[in-house]
């Protein structure tokens, strides 16, 4: 267990605030809010010096271990403005927990989960003007930790920086939910049992670019990853978890240590089960999917993740087999789940799960 | 093919040179020489602005993609001072080639290989006082490339920085070659077919720390990695390639895309073959190794890499099987190869391979 952090977060406000773009002009992840959170770690001393400061470049020694060995973990979460003009987070305790799991896998120091949430809330509160309000918009929050020891030997660093930055983001679907087209990746591997697939660490993402770029060149929006050992089990779609509706049962790959345990995934499972749907978390062979498709049982498919919330899948190409799903239209369950989840996140639907967490 | 770079390298000398430590006080990778090389890349513009500047912190925007997604590649090489007081590199063309291979795997821009060598030589020449001269010492050179685009979307960056830093290093074996003790890693995986094991990219290293730390806690110097798919083929030892002498034949794992194609590995194979040894590059099952051990045929084992050159292995623990090799003494072939290779690197032995490359 990480030690609790009692220190106060000091706040230094910017003297030079940026112009906040109109909701319609929001992009994803290019423009950052006026402030950032920063805290230091040293072996023996623990986490210390939590502060909110104007968003600014980091001074990184070129010998810092993270520039070479990628001892890096991160999280992704959003702050939403609800219809009562309150700012809400969605299950931030889950991000705190997952960050600590990632840290353990990467030999990095854990964080007091309550302090993590406090740091996120403090930053969002200071930059509350940056939380947009139109449907589909939010403030994307990126907590991350990097190893800073100035040493080229291969070992866990003795010092770290924990940072939180935030970027206002526009709607993922300005024209409504739109199905994506993906290909099954049969050459490249994202993750393998015994590796770091269940951790949110940068190496998993850099490693995935080549497959993604090649798929884009072939006209696809992304890839469906197969497991690294047997190359036959479905794992994730791009950087999202994946769900299929097969013969009225919902199937999603089980957590075997190779896929990221998505918070959206977990929420979708709970909502589905509550609605009385049959949900199976289990190994799913790509061949089984193809068989279901051939027999007319593959009804819907969608990805889940914080960025898109729900990403309907309209087409899956596996070698020579072109699987068009639900006539490339958004499926009924897909769109219902999207409405329920975004409804809870924005406070339109009563949150009986206690998932939303007010910033103030 | 990368475009050639015609620009001159500008040189700005430090006004505040550091004290150069005595050869006996040298550590590895903590102290860096007075200068560093830096060059920028932008899409459309290519590599530009090559410069040597005083060693200094980088200004890195916290939204830079490499802080999150580890689009990072690097190299490791050494400059040696020979007995005629000349400074020599060892096969720098191989580092240039491997860096470009890594860059392709990581969707990063390639570098003109001749320019790469010129950049390394220019830095080493400016910091030539930092190249130590005692036996076993050298200037360790770390070229690396990081993605700098300020964007949290998952895509290949549009901008990069190429840097070269250098650190004087002491002898790896101040008291002579010393065998290491390693355990066969059966839980964690370094790399898998379809992944990035053959590229020198940071994610491979951060991912390996947990196994290494656990092995250290159990009293081992490091781990012997098995393949990620079948968990039965020997791949590498720590961050080194590995060789075994079995019944008078030398066996080393073949390059199947999961292990780093080491330059020391390649050099050792050539030297051995030239001496008339039988060298087999092939898949090697850990069970075959155990069988050879049980039958008394496992004669020697050693790792190869730029840092240690040759690292004799005295003991390998595989589950319950404790394999002591050559009575935990350095084997005769191991020490001979070490003498030949370091002899060529330091100019004591005639370099009939044309591997050494004078800085001036
Ligand atoms: C690889 C990967 N899988 C799945 C997800 C979905 O996780 P979450 O629902 O917590 O955003 C993410 C993050 O968004 C991811 O990076
Ligand atoms: C994973 C890994 N394997 C092997 C090697 C050996 O390569 P080289 O002999 O080129 O130093 C290295 C680098 O030193 C490495 O990082």
UniProtKB/TrEMBL annotation, chains A, B:
Q: Name one GO biological process term.
A: L-valine biosynthetic process
PROSITE patterns, alphabetically?
AA_TRANSFER_CLASS_4
Cofactor(s) in the UniProt record: pyridoxal 5'-phosphate
Q: Which SUPFAM superfamilies match?
A: D-aminoacid aminotransferase-like PLP-dependent enzymes
**Which InterPro entries does this one have?**
Aminotrans_IV, Aminotrans_IV_CS, Aminotransferase-like, B_amino_transII, BCAT-like_C, BCAT-like_N, BCAT_family
Q: EC number(s) in its UniProt entry?
A: 2.6.1.42
Keywords of the record, alphabetical order, are: Amino-acid biosynthesis, Aminotransferase, Branched-chain amino acid biosynthesis, Pyridoxal phosphate, Transferase
A Pfam family that the UniProt record links to this protein:
Aminotran_4
What's the domain of life for this entry?
Bacteria
Q: Which family does it belong to?
A: Belongs to the class-IV pyridoxal-phosphate-dependent aminotransferase family.
Record's PANTHER family? BRANCHED-CHAIN-AMINO-ACID AMINOTRANSFERASE, SUBGROUP IIII AMINOTRANSFERASE
| Stated name of the protein | Branched-chain-amino-acid aminotransferase
In its UniProt entry, the species of origin is given as Halarsenatibacter silvermanii
User: Taxonomically, what lineage is the organism?
Assistant: Bacteria, Bacillati, Bacillota, Clostridia, Halanaerobiales
């Amino acid at each position: 267990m990480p030690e609790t952090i009692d220190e106060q977060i000091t706040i230094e406000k910017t003297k030079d605030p940026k112009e906040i773009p109109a909701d319609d002009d929001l992009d994803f992840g290019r423009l950052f809010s006026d402030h950032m959170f920063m805290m230091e770690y040293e072996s023996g001393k623990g986490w210390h010096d939590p502060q909110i400061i104007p968003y600014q470049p980091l001074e990184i020694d070129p010998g810092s271990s993270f520039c070479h060995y990628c001892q890096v973990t991160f999280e992704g979460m959003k702050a939403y403005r609800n219809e009562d003009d309150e700012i809400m987070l969605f299950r931030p305790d889950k991000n705190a927990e997952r960050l600590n799991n990632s840290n353990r896998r990467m030999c990095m120091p854990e964080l007091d989960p309550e302090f993590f949430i406090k740091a996120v809330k403090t930053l969002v509160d200071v930059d509350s003007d940056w939380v947009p309000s139109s449907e589909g918009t939010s403030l994307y929050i990126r907590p991350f930790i990097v190893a800073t020891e100035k040493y080229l030997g291969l070992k866990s660093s003795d010092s770290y920086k924990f940072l939180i930055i935030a970027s206002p983001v526009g709607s993922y679907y300005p024209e409504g939910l739109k199905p994506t087209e993906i290909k099954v990746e049969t050459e490249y591997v994202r993750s393998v049992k015994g590796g770091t697939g269940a951790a949110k660490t940068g190496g998993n993402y850099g490693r995935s670019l080549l497959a993604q770029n090649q798929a884009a060149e072939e006209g696809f929006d992304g890839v469906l990853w197969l497991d690294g050992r047997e190359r036959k089990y479905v794992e994730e779609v791009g950087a999202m978890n994946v769900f299929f509706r097969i013969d009225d049962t919902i199937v999603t790959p089980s957590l075997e240590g190779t896929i990221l345990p998505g918070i959206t995934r977990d929420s979708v499972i709970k909502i589905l089960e509550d609605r009385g749907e049959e949900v199976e978390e289990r190994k799913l062979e790509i061949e089984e999917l193809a068989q279901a498709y051939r027999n007319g049982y593959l009804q819907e498919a969608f990805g889940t993740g914080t960025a898109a919330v729900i990403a309907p899948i309209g087409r899956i190409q596996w070698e020579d087999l072109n699987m068009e799903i639900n006539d490339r239209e958004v499926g009924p369950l897909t769109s219902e789940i999207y409405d329920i989840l975004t409804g809870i996140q924005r406070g339109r639907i009563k949150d009986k799960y206690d998932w939303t967490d007010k910033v103030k």
